[in-house]
Design goal:
40% of the residues lie in helices and 26% in strands. The N and C termini lie far apart (46 Å). It is of the alpha/beta class and 262 residues long. The longest helix has 16 residues, at 5-20. It has helices spanning 5-20, 24-37, 45-51, 62-71, 76-83, 88-96, 116-121, 135-142, 155-161, 183-191, 222-231, and strands at 105-110, 125-132, 149-152, 167-172, 193-205, 210-212, 218-220, 234-247, 250-261. The protein is globular.
């Protein structure tokens, strides 16, 4: 079925207007209409429906993530770093660095975006492979000239299908906020690391389990993250509370985790 972009835009705009007016019944009906028009969910309405108990997404729709970041590729660094105070890659480098004992190492940068994590970890790398859903992001990343290979792919699918040499370090800065259930990620990451390899990842903080946030992302409780990765064979190395970014001047709390593959 071809996508009727005009009808989708009209339904989505009307749903958002109803939502802003507090007419949640109409908003829900119109968001569900959006899904009928666009089953791949480029607008990410399933994340909005989750707020009303009308959807239980396990992850953000890949088409939505690709569209969201593709639209903002050229202004991504300025908005995220300059306006929102995002510094997770540098924080991850500081926390994970002491556990990378024999650099240079092979690094996999999941959700690499414009290459901010690649810049932060470049001093440890013999080679960096970057993965992102938004091709427009990878065009920006390629200009940094620090990645050996770049792939357009969803993070878990990439990990599950990777059949080449394993990595010494996997960086997943701001990937988990687009995944709800982390079990598949943890299992797939474990198989892509050498024994003793390191995983460093960030999340937004929930009090229990995981949930969809009002900003249509996923938040995870530290206890849930620890248990999920322990079940996949990881051992904890370090953990630190962080401010992920600022939303309208308010700090968004999160956590950084460093695990070792066994």
């Amino acid at each position: 079925m071809s996508l009727d972009e005009a009808a989708l835009a009209a339904a989505y705009d009307a749903a958002r207007a109803a939502e802003d007016a507090g007419d949640l019944a109409t908003a829900t009906r119109l968001f569900e209409r959006c899904l009928e028009l666009d089953p791949e969910d480029h607008c990410g309405v399933v994340m909005r429906l989750a707020k009303y108990g009308r959807a239980t997404p396990q992850a953000a729709p890949p088409s939505y993530v690709a569209t969201l970041f593709g639209q903002h590729a050229e202004t991504f660094d300025r908005i995220l770093v300059g306006d929102l105070g995002y510094d997770v890659p540098a924080l991850a480098r500081r926390l994970a660095g002491p556990f990378v004992t024999r650099p240079p190492v092979r690094i996999l940068d999941l959700g690499c975006g414009t290459g901010l994590a690649g810049l932060a970890f470049a001093d440890l790398a013999s080679d960096i492979v970057g993965v992102d859903l938004a091709e427009e992001m990878l065009e920006m990343t390629d200009q940094r000239d620090i990645y050996g290979d770049l792939y357009v792919a969803e993070a878990v699918n990439f990990l599950e299908e990777w059949d080449e040499a394993p990595f010494d370090l996997i960086v997943a800065a701001d990937v988990w906020p687009y995944l709800g259930d982390l079990a598949a990620f943890a299992a797939a990451a474990a198989r892509c690391l050498v024994p003793g390899g390191v995983l460093v990842a960030s999340t937004e903080r929930a009090e229990d389990g995981w949930r969809v946030t009002p900003t249509q992302r996923f938040a995870h409780a530290p206890a849930y993250v620890r248990a999920t990765h322990a079940a996949a064979g990881f051992a904890p190395l370090a953990e630190e509370p962080i401010t992920v970014r600022h939303e309208e001047g308010v700090p968004v709390p999160g956590d950084l985790f460093v695990f070792e593959a066994r």
